[in-house]
Specification:
- The chain is of the alpha/beta class.
- It has one domain: Rossmann fold (3-Layer(aba) Sandwich).
- The chain is 44% helix and 16% strand.
- Strands 1, 2, 3, 4, 5, 6, 7 and 8 form an 8-stranded mixed sheet that branches.
- β2, α6 and β3 form a beta-alpha-beta unit.
- The longest helix is centred in the first third of the chain and has 24 residues.
- The radius of gyration is 18 Å and the shape is globular.
Length: 293
């Protein structure tokens, strides 16, 4: 992604959430605000009830069922875990690579309980803030924007320059981002979070599974997905083996709470569906807790 360009894949993800909300009945993830954070082209497509069907059967047919399912399920998984953490007393929510996330619009009741910090590339955040201000005019007091270039800055430094409190346990969500970063940047970010996160903080993120773990179906999906994002100027860089990843995060201070590979996500969110949405066969989710000696 160029330094002065908002993420096109972030808008595409919002468009897929909008498509799901507007035209499908078995909602995995309910996002009535997603369409308002898309560009004019997406709004035109989504506002005509015939266009979405054309979209699903032509332009995005090779990836819609799996990538759409992945975008919806990663949002649902993160917020399911967040809801549980709030019940345990967590007061801060950090969304890394927030893109066009609409949590602050969809959950005004929770903003009384937690403070939300959205971290993303400066250009993407600028575009998003402009769109938000057209919707709500005044941004919520408990919503803080933190601009960061993950390849050039540490998350910890950026957060510590805000009202973030390192003494309070925090829930971190890092969805739809790791595969666009180098492995070095990923572990620098995870280490950075450990340095500022209170004990019993939590993080969920998704990652692209190493090709040797994928079925033929998974390989077909990932190849189609790579081609789709490459046309939008973004490239997949890093994949992981499950056990290698678990060992590496353990070394820097995380404890595994849950590993959620495709078969688990399929059982959680995609059973008995009337449409063809399914868990992406190339993507796994992981839930970690911080451990400080």
């Amino acid at each position: 992604m160029k330094d002065d360009t908002s993420s096109k894949t972030a808008e595409a993800a919002a468009a897929l959430r909008a498509l799901h909300y507007l035209y499908e009945t078995q909602h995995i993830f309910t996002d009535p605000f997603a369409i308002k954070l898309t560009n004019k082209k997406w709004k035109l497509i989504l506002s005509n009830r015939f266009f979405p069907q054309i979209l699903k059967t032509t332009v995005m047919k090779p990836i819609y069922n799996a990538v759409g399912g992945q975008i919806l399920s990663r949002g649902r998984y993160a917020e399911d875990k967040l809801e549980s953490s709030i019940k345990r007393g967590i007061k801060q929510y950090v969304i890394l690579g927030a893109g066009m996330d609409t949590f602050a619009l969809r959950s005004p009741n929770l903003l009384d309980k937690i403070k939300v910090f959205e971290i993303d590339h400066p250009a993407t955040q600028k575009t998003k803030k402009e769109k938000l201000l057209k919707i709500i005019r005044t941004l919520p007091e408990n919503l803080v924007f933190v601009p960061v270039n993950f390849e050039k800055q540490t998350v910890s430094d950026a957060l510590l320059n805000t009202s973030f409190d390192p003494k309070k346990p925090t829930f971190f969500s890092w969805m739809g981002t790791s595969y666009y970063l180098t492995e070095k940047s990923i572990f620098e970010t995870l280490s950075s979070l450990i340095n500022i996160a209170a004990n019993n903080s939590e993080i969920v993120f998704d990652y692209y599974m190493n090709d040797r773990l994928l079925t033929k179906e998974g390989l077909n999906e990932i190849n189609a997905t790579k081609a789709f994002v490459a046309k939008r100027g973004e490239v997949f860089l890093t994949s992981f083996d499950h056990q290698e990843l678990i060992q590496k995060v353990n070394k820097i201070g995380y404890t595994l709470a849950e590993l959620a590979p495709p078969e688990i996500i399929q059982k959680l969110y995609f059973l008995n569906r009337k449409d063809k949405l399914k868990a992406a066969q190339w993507c796994s989710m992981i839930h970690l807790k911080t451990r400080k000696n």
